[in-house]
Amino acid sequence: MKTIKVGGMSCGHCTASVQKVLEGFPEIGRVEVSLEKGEASFEEKRPVDPSKVKEAIRKIGFEAN
Fold first, then answer.
1. DSSP single-letter state for residue 7
2. What's the pLDDT at 46?
3. Is the entire prediction scored with pTM above 0.85?
4. In the CATH hierarchy, which fold is given to the domain comprising 2-64?
5. Backbone torsions φ then ψ of 52, nearest 5 degrees
6. Residue 34: CA atoms inside 13 Å, Cβ hemisphere, count?
7. CA–CA separation, 26 vs 43, rounded Å?
8. Crossing angle of helices 12-23/50-59, nearest 10°?
């Protein structure tokens, strides 16, 4: 699984928002978002550009590294 650090999440709604964005990528399979760890992990069905994933997370108001 690939992991991206996500900053700015403070509740379950935040994690759900990040999960929804990642699940919107057809290249991404299973998604796990951890509020405690401040990260999002996902499996790739096929290669996905990490910069596009990070940009999508930033567009909904979170930091992505």
1. E
2. 95
3. yes
4. Alpha-Beta Plaits (3.30.70)
5. -70, -40
6. 9
7. 11
8. 140
CB of 53 within 8 A of CB of 22? yes
pLDDT digits (tens, 9 = 90+) for 6-50: 999 999 999 999 999 999 999 999 999 999 999 999 999 999 999
Measured in residues, the chain has a length of 65
**What was the pLDDT predicted at 36?**
97
Tell me how far CA of residue 18 lies from CA of 3, 5, 26, in angstroms: 13, 11, 15
Domain extents for the chain? Answer: 2-64
Q: Give the pLDDT score at 27.
A: 96
Please report, for the chain, how many H helices and E strands are present, in that order: 2, 4
* pLDDT on residue 49: 94
Q: Going by C-beta distance under 8 Å and a sequence separation of 6 or more, which residues neighbour residue 1?
A: 30, 32, 41, 42, 43
